[in-house]
Write a sequence for this structure.
């Protein structure tokens, strides 16, 4: 049985669409065939809520009188990029304050979305058309013209878990890794994760409407470091980091409940980003894909104590989410860097938005590359 986006959207408008979360459809698949799922289910909602360092925001402050062409820009002491015309900037979540390394761009973005005032300090050389040389003022979500979240790399298809073989504790963006394989951390929501439910990205591409931090956003491009992987498990799912998404959304519409600034000791700042992506059940193949279970999704455990992060072993998400695994012959605790509870909340919220006719599906205007390799930076001799 095949369906179209238009047919599904008409069912949403009529209040007749059947929507399940990815966890619900995985449970349903234990007693129901892909053919029956394709016939009876219209949309499956997926979600993730985890730290995504490649995130940030474009902001337009509006012009002062007299005007200024900003070159050095600081928001609550965090430097933002000043090379975008006169009063536009981009602030990344991992940029930290000059005075407080535990505070960074992620905290500025979180505060702006929460409606708080932010201190803006800027300097400029002064020109005939932009004579002002400095400004010190306050901004907030209502005073700026636009504040647009643009995240170059989010929602990794399958991010490796992390451990540490050395005798020293390691402080990483995957959290604190204890010596001698003392623990394992991971950062993917398993069977709820968007790109694991559509591994060939048949329904996710440029123009796909998504839930982004409480607002309706879009997939704007394939994410940076996007690559297609030949390392697939028996279910046809990549077992290593591969596809990523570039995402965009209006921060003025976002809800601070679905993002969270974070600080990682001896690493820096990051931002937990809440993403929900609906997958239309167009045919039996997609129905089969969204029925994936945690025990059928493998990922690699990599050694972050060694340059190059070599692979230690491969494991599935049912084992990781159990809280303990056997690694090198001993029981080791596992801990998520992402929040499964929050991902479930987002998937359920998106399901209800679609059910109530507040969220419609968009067909991608362009699919992602079928073959893409990842280049590495090389030193010049």
């Amino acid at each position: 049985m095949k369906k179209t986006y238009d047919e599904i959207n008409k069912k949403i408008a009529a209040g007749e669409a059947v929507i399940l979360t990815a966890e619900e459809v995985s449970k349903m698949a234990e007693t129901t065939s892909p053919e029956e799922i394709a016939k009876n289910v219209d949309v499956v909602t997926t979600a993730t809520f985890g730290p995504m360092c490649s995130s940030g925001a474009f902001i337009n402050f509006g012009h002062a009188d007299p005007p200024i062409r900003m070159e050095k820009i600081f928001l609550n002491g965090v430097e933002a990029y000043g090379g975008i015309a006169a009063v536009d900037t981009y602030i990344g979540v991992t940029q930290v304050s000059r005075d407080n390394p535990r505070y960074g761009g992620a905290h500025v973005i979180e505060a702006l979305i929460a409606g708080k005032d932010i201190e803006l300090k800027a300097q400029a050389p002064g020109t005939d058309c932009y004579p002002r040389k400095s400004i010190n003022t306050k901004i907030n979500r209502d005073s700026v013209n636009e504040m647009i979240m643009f995240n170059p790399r989010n929602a990794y298809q399958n991010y490796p878990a992390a451990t540490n073989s050395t005798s020293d504790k390691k402080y990483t963006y995957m959290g604190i890794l204890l010596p001698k394989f003392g623990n394992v951390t991971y950062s993917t929501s398993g069977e709820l994760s968007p790109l694991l439910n559509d591994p060939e990205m048949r329904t996710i591409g440029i123009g796909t409407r998504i839930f982004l931090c409480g607002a309706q956003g879009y997939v704007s491009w394939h994410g940076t470091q996007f690559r297609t992987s030949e390392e697939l498990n028996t279910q046809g799912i990549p077992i290593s980091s591969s596809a990523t998404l570039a995402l965009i959304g209006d921060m003025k519409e976002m809800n601070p409940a679905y993002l969270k600034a974070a600080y990682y000791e001896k690493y820096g700042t990051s931002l937990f980003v809440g993403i929900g992506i609906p997958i239309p059940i167009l045919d039996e193949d997609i129905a089969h894909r969204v029925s994936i279970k945690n025990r059928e999704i493998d990922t690699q455990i990599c050694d972050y104590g060694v340059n190059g992060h070599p692979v230690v072993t491969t494991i599935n998400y049912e084992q990781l989410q159990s809280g303990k695994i056997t690694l090198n012959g001993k029981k080791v605790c596992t801990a998520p860097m992402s929040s499964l509870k929050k991902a479930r909340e987002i998937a359920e919220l998106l399901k209800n938005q679609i059910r109530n006719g507040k969220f419609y599906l968009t067909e991608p205007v362009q699919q992602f590359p079928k073959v893409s390799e990842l280049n590495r930076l090389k030193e010049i001799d």
User: Anything to note?
Assistant: Helices lie at 5-13, 22-28, 34-40, 105-113, 194-197, 284-290, 317-321, 340-355. The chain has a mean pLDDT of 96.
